[in-house]
Amino acid sequence: MSFITTLFHLIEWIILVYFFALNFLYLLFTILSLIGLTRHHQLSTYILYKEMLHLPSLKPISIIVPAFNEEKTIVANVHSLLALEYPNYEVVVVNDGSTDQTLKQLITHFHLKKTFRVFRKVIETAPIKNIYLSPTYPKLVVVDKENGQKADALNAGLNVARFPLFCAIDSDSLLDKYALLKIIRPFLEEPANMVAAGGIIRLSNGSRIEYGQVKEVGFPRNLLAQFQTIEYLRAFLGGRTGLSMLKSLLIISGAFGLFRKKEVLDIQGYRKETVGEDMDLVVRLQRHLREKKIPYQIRFVPDPICWTEAPEKLKSLTRQRNRWHRGLIESITYNRQMILNPRYGLIGLFAMPFYVIFEMLGPFIEFAGYLIFLFYLFKGGLNSQFALLFFMVALIFGIVISLFAILLEEYSAYQFPRFWHILGLMGASFLENFIFRQYLTLVRVKAFLDFFLGKKEW
Amino acid sequence: MTTQIYIILYSLIFLFLFTLSLFLYISIRRFVITQREKRHRYLRQAIESDILAAITSSPKNSWPVELKQYLRYPDIFTEVLLEFWQTLSGTPREQLKNIFASFLKEKYRRAISSRRLIKRVKAAKAFVIFAEEKDAPVIIQLLNDHPLVKLATLSSLTLNPQPKILESIFTSFIQETQTPLRYYFDLFTSMGKIIEPFVKKILKRSLPEEKLALLVELIGAIPLTSLYPQLLRLSIHPSKEIRVKTARALGNLSLPLEEIIDTLMLLAEDEAWEVRAQALKSLGKLRAKKALTLLAQALFSPYWYCRLNGARALVQFGEKGLKTLRKIARQKKDPYAADMAHMILEEIVTTGE
After folding, report:
1. Cβ separation A396–B29 shorter than 8 A
2. Alpha carbon of B62 to those of A180, B66, B76, B133: distances in Å?
């Protein structure tokens, strides 16, 4: 009996230390982000993006858009991409063997014509059936290929893309009009070393959208979307800005990131065997550059915005989070040799262990915490000291960090315009800690099991 | 247990107060920003009308005292000056420059040496736009600063390419003995076509090989298309390095002119294989039909790079080039040529056939 009690106490302490360390690190990232955002905001005041359009050193960009069964949104989204402010870019839409009318919609609306086009196949992909160009929209290239999943479609886009920089985006996302001019900034500042930059993903739920552009930021009415709004603010404005300042960025969202093509081709593009191709690419890219001792920089830029619709139904949210977590585990296990390896600098010594402990294994520790709490609650004899500390480090500390994320939002490029939006965000910061957070922990625990059971589906 | 309940209560009170203060902070911040914007608009209007009155009525270099009061608001003052500068042209621009020199220049000169990056970025833009000939050394200092300061300086130089200042930068390039020349390459490339007359002028001088090679590369990189005659002359330069760079630059210009193609065809038969390989690549870029036979012959060269570039160049011609490649791949006389043709045919994907 005494052994079990000691074991329970040990687990209790592990859980408390875990929650404290997690929230402490997030607080550190948030403070760093606050400094970074203020600085970025001040500097941006003196950089007029319209003036940047004249800079001859702006490199052309290929926007790669993989599309699978997107017949409802593809035309509007491509239109919005064709209207971006940037001097020289192309939009490469890759129809990844859609079974609906995606290709037909594109052909009809953009007057596409089949072309004879020759390109170098640097990365192996599923066969390309045809390449279409539009006489009315010269920036548009549509690649029609057999289905091979997202990573394969992105690789096909990489083969066809003509420009030295490429921007990978999701076909259901919308880019802010000046997003390319904003995300290119690190490449202008450090042209020799910059290999990748990530932009911020904001949720468009509740916002007013006209002609593929967000005209007015709004607050979602759906409770799930409200919780995700807070999560995204915390993750992007807090987490990624902070990690980027610590030179430990391991994820550039697949929904919006800019990369130097040469380096990505050097590592054979996106890995097809993973469902988390975005994180996997960034980790392998850093691994390759570190191994080759090539100086590089990867940065997160907080003002180029990509708008995306968050799932408002529990089923789709569950599927999305399950996929994300499996992708994370796949990337970490595939690149496990980087963990605690000084050869990979801060990435190996800090970023990878951080992701292993707090992202990959974290859900188990959180889950154990909730189980112990429930166990004591029903069995009686609740360890009041544990309960109190758990309440403080998991709940109170967690809410404070979410509230800080609202402060970060205030320093970001697009703010929620109305006061009731702020109140809504504050309410969501409190409420997400009950049921929503625990449910997502459970989803991630299941994703962990799915990964070891070999689940590969999206 | 009571202590623990107190702790929980205090935590909840702390959370409530924290939330409340955050909400108040956000509300006050937004209010302050709105008020500041209002005041900003009001001041802008006042400064605008006073500057307009000054440049239309005052004799040069004698400015009304009203303008002096705006020194307390240097940011708005500068903002208005910059906006006028973008709208106006000719003599009024000179007057704006004089106003800047009389009231703000010293302040910005100090800011350029500030430790704070934001101050330097802010100062760089206005200083470069209103710079005079004598300010060239300061501009060079700015171009050596943090990437953001350099970016702000370049963006202003691109908007306002002042010949005298650009000339000073080129003079410094000619005299340069310490700074790596690559730095100048990045700088000139960023400036774009505005440097064309300066490059043309400088190419008339006798330059060390390293500097000449950099300028040749620059012509192709920007590209400075009107300077192709200068490149044609350099195609017979005794240095192999210069000939290689000339061949590359001629391809990068993307001008399929007869004389350029003829020169590249001559370079494709140069004594150095490096020059030949580069010339073949450029002929492919220009899709010079009259060079088709020459490119096909290149596949039988004893040099791997010549074979590779010849084959890749043929791909640029589409079906015609691919036919030639297939033919070479089928022949058995020269297995090296056949292998290269095979490799390139496998490397490419053709669609819409």
Report:
1. no
2. 45, 12, 21, 22
